[in-house]
Amino acid sequence: MKGITPIISIIILLLITIGLAGAAWTYMSGYFSGLTARYIEVGYSYCDGNVAKIMLTNRGTSPLPLNCEANGNILDCKNFKIIKKSAPTGHEDMKDPDGGTTNFFDAESFKPGESVIFSEQCTEAGTPGTCVYVVISGTKGGTQVMIECAGGEMETTPPPPPPGEGEDTGGLL
Q1: Where do the domains of the chain lie?
Q2: Strand partners of residue 65
Q3: 46, 56, 53, 57: which is closest to 159 by C-alpha?
Q4: I need a surface site. Which of 45, 88, 103, 149 has the fewest CB within 10 A?
Q5: Rounded to an integer, what distance in angstroms lies between the CA atom of residue 53 and that of residue 89?
Q6: For residues 92 and 108, is the Cβ–Cβ distance under 8 A?
Q7: What is the CATH number of domain 38-149?
Q8: Torsion of CA 80, 64, 57, 106, to 10 degrees
Q9: CB of 120 within 8 A of CB of 147?
């Protein structure tokens, strides 16, 4: 009785190696695609009277719906979360500018490269205060944003967007 010839055993080992490498490649490419598909970048932040505003930009590879649910101090948007870490007494829970829990954004979704503004009642009208938010997207942790609100009714002017976002710079950056 003869065993497997060395040539056939080498071919079988090569096929096993190629199969394992293919399985590893499939797993890793799916893993990294999931990480980059939903990445939120935090832009500028400011206060408009008593409403804290944060610009968020979708730097991922897929559109993100903004059908979010507020539960206490957490706004869960399925693909990312915003946590109200600290706020003046009585304003610990998330509230949209109208006092509700559903209208936090100026759009219903945003595509890769697009920006939206998150708006939330930081303080009572006429009462100054500071709110701290943490924006969490993907698995890399979160970005903390601290916003001081004077509480007045006067609108403050937001900072201009960085070059390349919203205006033509004529090729100069």
Answers
A1: 1-37, 38-149
A2: 109
A3: 46
A4: 103
A5: 19
A6: no
A7: 2.60.40
A8: -100
A9: no
DSSP letters for 102-137: S--BSSSEE-TT-EEEEEEE-S-TT--EEEEEEEEE
pLDDT tens digit sequence for 39-98? 888 989 999 888 999 999 988 888 888 888 889 999 998 888 999 998 888 888 888 888
Task: Give the contacts of 5 (CB within 8 A, at least 6 positions apart).
Answer: none
Place of tokens 């219903």: 108
For residue 144, what are its two tokens? 């903390």
Residue for token pair 């990445």: 39
Please tell me the distance from the alpha carbon of residue 83 to that of residue 64, in angstroms, as a whole number: 18
Joined tokens for residue 119: 């708006």
Q: Which residue has the tokens 């998150």?
A: 118
Q: Which helix (H) or strand (E) is 23 found in, with range?
A: helix 6-37
